[in-house]
Amino acid sequence: MIQQEIELPKPLDQLTATELERKACIGKVMTYTLKSLTDTFVNKGFQWLLPVALSQSTDPLWPDPGASIEKRIEVDIYGKPVRTTASMIIHKLVASSTAYPKLFILSPNIRIEKAERAKTGKHIYEFTQLDFEMCNAESKDVFSLVEDAICILIKDLKREMNSELSQLCRCESIQVPKVPFKIYDRAELEAKYGLDWEAGIAEETTEPVWITNIPREFYDFEDFKTGKWDNYDLFLPQFGEVLSGAKREYEYTKILSKIERDQVKKDNYSLVLKMAKDGRLKPTAGAGIGMERLVGWISGVKHIAECQPFPRVPGSVQEL
Ligand code: ASN
């Protein structure tokens, strides 16, 4: 895809009066989006967990061809190494297998993306996921939950945020999608569009679509017989990926063999391995919605850091 030349979002103190107005407008869309989605999850019986920032175990983000992490942050506290949260996937597996069968978290994720990703418009080095997990659930349960949450959100936004959407010139482009969303297999898309299938489908589709069967981290379910992955991304038209998730692995031997295959450090995952070995890890499914991406799509931004009060553009560090 031809990368459009985009201006990088500036910090608050450098914005003109008009730019501040636009910023405030996007801020209102963010507020309403957070309200609508958290209401939907609470109404559907999910418990709202608070996030953590430092843990021994975090998302390995490996092997994922989409990941481009320049640096992994590790510090010592109380004589032990901890990492900043890359995603709360491991916490979700443990929490939804024990005290919180249906949970969600507004989780700040730190991923120090390579500086050359500054102008993709889709990457920021700190972002927030609405990360959720359900015990004894499958992919189809996640699909219908997310489709419902997005339709409620867009319907309500069009009613309650009409003036903001019109200020952002998004009244026409944002419509309540048709359900169920179409499902595509990544292998099919690769055959059609080649390796740049992500850009291909994002440009072509006029409705949100699910993409399944994407090879990635050990915690997503992989059928060893067929080689297919029971996982998914949600792609938005003219935008791209806004959510990723999966049905999860919960069997000890599979998790162990995948960790070893991927050459991921086993010591960082000893708790989840022990729980799986003891039969205490349950079959769950879930996903995480990138909040800046979702609101960025709704608002029609060129760069998702426009949705952040304090932009986290790869390669640049500001005072705030
Ligand atoms: N939140 C994602 C999931 O639920 C994981 C990630 O962000 N890497 O699968």
How is this structure best described in words?
This protein has helices at 17-43, 89-97, 139-160, 162-167, 186-193, 197-204, 252-262, 270-277, 291-299, and strands spanning 47-49, 54-55, 69-71, 74-77, 80-84, 102-110, 112-113, 126-135, 182-185, 209-212, 221-222, 229-236, 240-247, 284-290. The chain is α+β, with helices and mostly antiparallel strands and 320 residues long. The longest helix is centred in the first third of the chain and has 27 residues, at 17-43. Bound molecules: asparagine.
- CATH class descriptor name of one domain: Alpha Beta
Report the uncertain regions: none
Spell out which ligands are present. Answer: asparagine
**Number of helical regions:** 9
Number of strands: 14
For the record, the CATH architecture of one domain stands as: 2-Layer Sandwich
Distance between the termini: 33 Å
Report strand %: 15-25%
The biggest beta sheet is recorded as:
9 strands, mixed
Order of helices and strands: HEEEEEHEEEHHEHHEEEEHHEH
Look at the structure and give the mean pLDDT: 97
Envelope shape: globular
What oligomeric state do these chains adopt?
Answer: single chain
Kindly state the percentage of residues in helix: 25-40%
- Give the radius of gyration: 19 Å
Determine the CATH superfamily of one domain: Bira Bifunctional Protein, Domain 2
The CATH topology of one domain is given as BirA Bifunctional Protein, domain 2
Secondary-structure-derived class: alpha+beta
Concise summary:
The chain has 320 residues and is α+β, with helices and mostly antiparallel strands. 34% of the residues lie in helices and 22% in strands. The strands form 3 sheets. Strands 1, 6, 8, 9, 10, 11, 12, 13 and 14 form a 9-stranded mixed sheet that branches. A 3-stranded antiparallel sheet has the order 2-5-4, with no helix packed on it.
